[in-house]
Amino acid sequence: MIKQIVIEQTVQQAFSPAHLELVNESYMHSVPAGSESHFKLVLVTDQFNGLRSVARHQKVYAALGDVMQQIHALALHTYTPEEWQVKQAAPASPQCLGGSKHDQH
């Protein structure tokens, strides 16, 4: 829960979001119980006005800095308030198709 809190606080401070949703999706992957390795971030902020998706993601990565080295995956869903007003929900994450080095072949 520590990484999730750090991510939430960092994003809150950097973006003052209109909407912030951070979901630990590690349970959907081949990792030990209680892991904090895979996250889904839904972020709505005015700071994304006029920016394309790649630039939005770069801003998030820059804000998180070293935290990105501590997790395996971060699914980003970034919106302006106007886009979010239309959308109101991020897409569901797909099921993990990856395996584990411990899987039998």
Q: Any overview of this molecule?
A:
- With 105 residues, the protein is an alpha+beta fold.
- The protein has three helices and three strands, in the order αββαβα.
- The protein has helices spanning 2-15, 53-64, 81-87; strands spanning 19-24, 38-44, 73-79.
- Strands 1-2-3 form a three-stranded mixed sheet.
- The longest helix is centred in the first third of the chain and has 14 residues, at 2-15.
- The mean pLDDT is 86.
Major β-sheet strand ordering: 1-2-3
Measured as a percent range, the helix fraction is 25-40%
Count of separate DSSP helical elements: 3
Tertiary shape:
globular
**Class by SSE composition:** alpha+beta
Rg (C-alpha, Å): 15 Å
H/E order of the elements?
Answer: HEEHEH
List the uncertain runs. Answer: none
* Percentage of residues in DSSP E strands: 15-25%
Count of individual beta strands: 3
Major sheet description: 3 strands, mixed
Précis, in short:
The protein has about 100 residues and is α+β, with helices and mostly antiparallel strands.
